Amino acid sequence: MLRAKIIATGSYVPERVLTNFDLEKMVDTSDEWIMERSGIRERRIASEKESASDLAYEAAKAAFKRTDIKPKDIELVIVTTVTGDMPMPAT
Questions:
Q1: Which CATH architecture has domain 1-91?
Q2: Is pLDDT above 80 for 88?
């Protein structure tokens, strides 16, 4: 029987922050309205030069720092997203 397990995780968020107060300047909304309905106070925005795979790569690097496993030891990576690098071919 094949077995798989999660031995480390990593995360990465882009540097640019867009707060609800920033959104108030762009559209007819308020921090209170957004917080009441979604609980969201801020979101991160990738730069023009950052793609979904760039964000995944940085998260993977963070995960590898938490374990002795090396990238060459990984046999399979499964990714699912609705925000791929390009519409076709799927990345």
A1: 3-Layer(aba) Sandwich (3.40)
A2: no
